[in-house]
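User: Assemble these into one structure.

Assistant: Restating your components, then the assembled model:
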Amino acid sequence: MKGAAVYNTSHIMPEWRIIAEQALHILNVVLAGYFIAGNGTYTLLMLMSLGSVWVHSQKAGREGPHHLLESPMTPPVTIIMPAFNEEETIVESVRSTLKAEYPGLEVLVVDDGSTDATLERLIAAFELVQVDLVYRQLLPTQPIRAFYLGQGRTNLTVISKRNGGKPDALNSGLNLCRTPYFCTLDADCILERDALLRLMRPVLASPVSTAVTGGVIRVLNGCEVEDGQVARIGLPRKVLERFQVVEYLRSFLLGRTGWDQVGGTLIVSGAFALFHRQTVIEAEGFSTDTVTEDAELIFRLHRWAREQKRRLRVSFMSDPVCWVQCPSSVRMLARQRRRWQMGLCQTLWKNSFMHFNRHYGVVGLVSFPFHAYIEALGAGVEFIGYLAVPLALLSGLALPPLYLSILILGLTYSAFLSIGSVVLEDLTHRRYPSLKDFSTLLLYAVLENFGYRQLILWFRLQGYLKFHTGCRQWEKVVHGAPNR
Amino acid sequence: MPTVSGVVFAVTLSSFLASGTLIGLALLRREQREKHFHEFNELRRLTLPIISSLIAGTLDYQTALQALGEILPSPPQRAQVVERLLFDGKNPASVSVPLLRRLAMDFGLVELWEGALLSSSRPVPWGQPVSRPVGALGRIRALHFLLRVRSAERLGLIGHAPSWRLLVRALEDPHPQVRATAALALGAIAEPQSFAALVERLRNVVLTPSLSLSMRHIKAALVCFPLRQASELLELLKHSHPRVRVLAADVVREMVVLSPGAGGAEELPLLNPQDVAPELADLFLTRLVFDQNPEVRARAAPVIARLNDPRAKWQLVNLLNDVQWFVRLHAVRALAQPRFGTLAEHVTRRLTDENWRVREAAVRTLLSFGSPGAERLLQHFLTTPDRYSREQIAEELQRRSLLSVRPGEDGVWGQPQVRERLMGLEKQNDCRGTACRTLVPRPSQGQKGTASRTPTAAEVADDRKDSHQGRNLPPQ
């Protein structure tokens, strides 16, 4: 018996190997499923985006939004710019914002308790005078320290308040805002002159009340800024920044446009978005319990509209452009992506009842599950997928058939989607007209899958883990000043 | 398994091929665009001096037309080139509308646009490069609506009045964007006969919501017509559906606001019977001012304020005491003209209104009455026990003083008894948020004002209650 037992055990695999190989088989199936669901959805989004962006560029590119400048139906707008330690960029940004072409434009800068010279620079540059204004706290915020008005300039107001984070600063601005619509704009942004008019278009054109409209964010690094406007568009020099140019194109032109086509918009960048003031106030403003207050507000507005039995629209436009400095170091990029991932997880968790909830239509049945399983949990799946290869090789385990093929296919397909977004940009908006820039973008669309994608995945995983630890820390991303 | 591996291989290969195709398409389009714009820029270089001379009046029209005809390509493409030269981008931006219209007619553009509106697609030869947008659009039936949109827009731009029937017909177009553009074009042309069609659409927007036509577009078109046509809205103003009445009243209000003489003038001219039909004026003064729907009453106020009728003042006083705060708000705002100075007492009562927006409007209206209004404001400021009212006055004066003279240094604010009273108020800290302190003359502080005090919890609750009254109300 003893001999037989020895004989048997020497010819069968150890138990851990059996389990490990079965796990690899399961992982193989999960990876294939992840690939089909993720890339399948992206392909559909790309096809819809190709059509809609092209049609829109045909229409919008020729008509221009300038008739809205004179239209009596164009409602006034307040731009709310929260600023925390933005001494490098704030003056240029405010100057650019004040030049925006819009009838009845007001600019409200909220200094969120900066510890640098943000406020002093504003006071000096715009000859601000301290005044007392009536502050009605419709939404709770940190205490206000002072109000400033631009001397001889009626449309610039600055609020100085105790630090409370970006959502708190936005709520302060919202308390003082008087116009029916407001636009949130990050303090390191350069707004194109007609961007706000373009952003207002769906509000005026839609028969349904439009609560939110999002615009496109583009990378400012590498561009030259003159007199508060982008004077020459160029690609950044740093490799890391170039990858982000491709990433932003894919995200805004391909992803968000596609979701807008099916009415499934769940994420609008708060760096540049237009909101209906009364709707946001009734939905209780920007929440301070997540680190991505913009996405959280969109989820909440969908919920609020459902509860109030109101029809409202969240739309996205592919032609209003706002230029933003992207992180130029790995450290800052890591901070940004950790925050985005953590915020996404927080928001999805907070609104988990929308998950496969038919009452929310496309948002509940398609968009929410996509963001939950592909955008949030997908980071973990992809990471384990990569990790399994070296682990299997080291431990002598045989990878399931097609495992590597699926991984390679995933990367190839991802490159195809990135190339698609670069081509879409070139066929429609053409902000990078030189052939050299176009070729460079195509090259980076391929290269980003070999190193950069995995780096971002690592940061996303960190964000995911931070969410699980209950962390709510807002990691500040410091940007350099734009080229002048 | 071989089948699955085959699929994986096929998808990988397809993604390579698709990427290559996309890149090839982009490069091809780049090349064609470059060629096209090179040709186009050359034509622009040649034609621009002629068009500039035409605008400047140094070249007569027939000579210019002949010169342009010699430069431009033969007829099938000529119209497209002229269209791009005249209407795309900013060149030549200064061409006057009559000249633009004449050129568009003589080069056959109007005919082309009218044809497109009638859905008769343009003949686009397949050999024409796809880089030419007209060519690309003409080939795909699903995109024909873009041609119709463009045609409607351009007919509106040149103000081609004979096209109004076609544009009215386009209000029934299957595509919503064509309907919207046609409405705006009708507004731009402002042909009196088309007003009725737009009025009909306005009614249908409310009564048939499935039309999915933006109300703003119809309104934007209607308000472009001269005010005398507003009498055609009488039927809608008497309609049993409250929303129809609101929309119609809003259109009349906007027409009054945009009427000649209203552009930024301090004292808006009164409207006479030749501007507003007596029947319409009567309807506002006798019926709409008492309408069951407060939104109609609110919209009636600015119209009544411009009527040359002795009843107008007293109906506005009625509206000042309306139960709905936004009706009072519109009434207070409508009175912001020096001729209503005699109603200052009624406006002063609104300084203690329960809604802050009405209080704010009352301050502004009193200031618009000139010195008597400012005196009244000061008296109220010094005597009222209502601190909310005081802070509202303080804020408005601060905002205004930034652009001119600081209060407390000049005029009535500098009088000794006033200064004394202001000092007293400051000592008592009886101005919430210390807003009132700014009014106290303190030359030593120079330009610097005072810091805000954070409101107490009770004040915040009070404010929230106050502001919540504004919920579910129409946007101002």
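The two ends of chain A are 85 Å apart (CA to CA).
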